[in-house]
Each structure stands twice: as C-alpha cells, then as structure tokens.
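Problem 12. The chain below contains 389 residues. Write out its predicted structure in token notation.
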Amino acid sequence: MADRPPNSLRELNRRRVLAALRDRHATNRGELCRVTGLARTTVTSLVAELLGDGIVVEGPAEPGTGRAGRPAAALTLAPQPQLVVGIDFGHSHCTVGIADSAARVVAECSTPMDVDASADRALAHAAATVHRLVEGLGARRTLVAGAALGLPAPVDLRTGAVGSGNILPGWVDRRPAAELAELLGLPVAVDNDANLGALAEATYGAARGMSDVVYVKVSTGIGAGLVLGGEVFRGSTGLAGEIGHVPVDPDGAVCRCGNRGCLETVVSVTHVLRLLQPAHREPLDVARVVELVEAGDVGAARVLRDAGATIGRVLADLCNGLNPEALVLGGELSQVGEALLGGVRESIGRSAQPGIVRALRVLAGTLGPRAQLLGAVALAQRHASPVGW
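Solution.
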C-alpha cells in the first residue's frame, strides 16, 4: 500500500468513502457518490485502490440498486484482524476495554481509583492495564491499531490539553492523549465523556442511524454531547455542550466553575441525593433512588421530575438552535427513567418551538454506564492506524 500524506485531499476523500461504508450509509459506488458528494470518477478510483489494498471487498450484485435496472455490486469493509483500545476515566474509576473490528469488547477491566488526584498515576495504570489485557488475550501487539480515552472534563482541541483545573485538578494543562501515546506506542485520541456518550448512542444505541442527536449525561456533572450531520460536533476549541455550567438560578450555590447557580448545582446526582436524604434513615445512592421511584415514593418522583424540568428548560434553547432528531438522556441519573424523562419532555414541550418538538424524540439511553467506554472504542476505530504496535 503506497504511503499518502495524512492530510492530502485524496486521503481525506478516502476517509470519507471508508466512513460511509463503515457506518452503512452506502453499500455501492452509486450510493458512495450520493453520500460523499464526490465525483463518480473519484469514487471509482478510490474504490479500486481500496479493493487492491484488501480494505474493501466486492460482493454479489444487489437487485434493483443499479442504473436502468442493472444491479450494482455490493461493497463492504473487509474483516480486519485488528484490535482497538477504549479507556473511560471517570472521577472515581478507570475502565479499559479491548475491542475487535466489530466493536465487540473482548477483554475489560474496571478499577476504582481517584482519577482526579493524579494524571500520572491514572495514565500509568491505564497503560499497564492495556498491556496486561492484550497479553491475556494472547494477541500479537501488532494487531492493536489505536486507542482512545474519555475524560470527565473539557479538552481543548487546539492543544489536546485538559481545559479546566476546577473539574480535574490533577490534570490541568496535561495532554493525556500525547502522554498515553508515548506510554503505549500507539495513536491515541481523546474526548470528553459526554461526546463519547453521544458517539456511542448514535453508533450502537438509542439513536443508532440518526444524524442529529443531543446526548445529555446526568451524573456528578452535567454535560451534553452533540452529533450533527453524523459527526461529533466539538466547537472551535472543544468546549461545545457544556450545559452543566449554564446559570439557572442567579441566587444559587457557587459552582465549581466559579459561577453561581449553574445547572449542575441543582440537578446533579449529588444535589438530588442531598435533597432526598433527610427523608430517609439509610444512606442513599442512585440505585436506592431508582428503587424508591419504582416503589411509588412520591417525594423521590417529585424531586426527579423537577430536576428533569430544569434540565428541559436549558435543553429547549439548545433544541431551538439545533433542531435535532433525538435527545438521549444518559448517565447515572437516567436510570430512574420516566420520572426524569417526563420532566424533560414537559419543559421542552412548553419552551421549544412546536415544529422542533414535533420532530424530536426524547429517549433514554440504552448503553447505560458502558456508553463512555463504547464511545471510546468507536473513536479509536475512527482514528486507528493500519499499523499497530
């Protein structure tokens, strides 16, 4: 396979063709022209190159897919004997997964740890876990084509640095992708956890097949991931979707970002548990709150519906601006289901434009706490190198 400059026009067009085939938006040359907007001669040339490289295979013609009734040959990605690494850093855990070319996680390890305190310790632990899992699979290191990691903090796309010391105090100004790439000897991509949740739900979960999706992670923090036109939208510096720091109460508590009355201060897991705890003798956690809601506890249901309504007021403005197909709720608090979703729907119904509301589906995420890990797997596959370790 001939070397190509990584940012050449031909290489960028090649990636567009591969992305269309990978996401099943196109299955033949004609559909590739339509989906990518590339000229037929360009698509024909790129497909020939990919067939020659063994990256794409040509299958039996599909009836009714060609011009003038002539069937068009089906194109699919060839099975690649490669693995990718997904790493999910939460505030209190590190989860590492090894996935095959079909995005099946074939080895996984999750470790409780204080990720906030030390980037050095967290990155070293992740690298050691990757080596151990790959060795445990009996796989050759040359099969590992890339890695991606998620962080519960904004990442500046211009520098690759963690953008907020208030959220991850032990990571300020660190460049985790570059540092982990050095430890692993692999290409490594990085994104924040909400973006990875959005990518996962749009690729494998509740919003699969949808092009314009807003994913909201409701956990210790609140963040949104945006998929627009089938791609994660990160903004000019990577800070798009920071809805947790939209002020909703001018006289509210001071937020860790330094502002007062941010959304995160009134609807996070921490705040919801604080509101409910005085009415219960036993210490509450999210699992217990889910049980209370399912048992018909009126107080728990009211607190969660109010939380959903507050989130919905912020999301209504976002939906008015983006007109998404779906709004997917994920994160720990989404486990309570309709108690939270109902409040979100009501607020959006009252505050968003009617046409926006009619086109919008408000859904619970289907991937649960694995959304961020699977999002890291999807990101790693998109950035993987054909040459691994």
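Discussion. The chain has three domains: 9-77, 83-197+372-383, 206-366. Students who got a different answer should revisit the alignment rule from Section 12.3.
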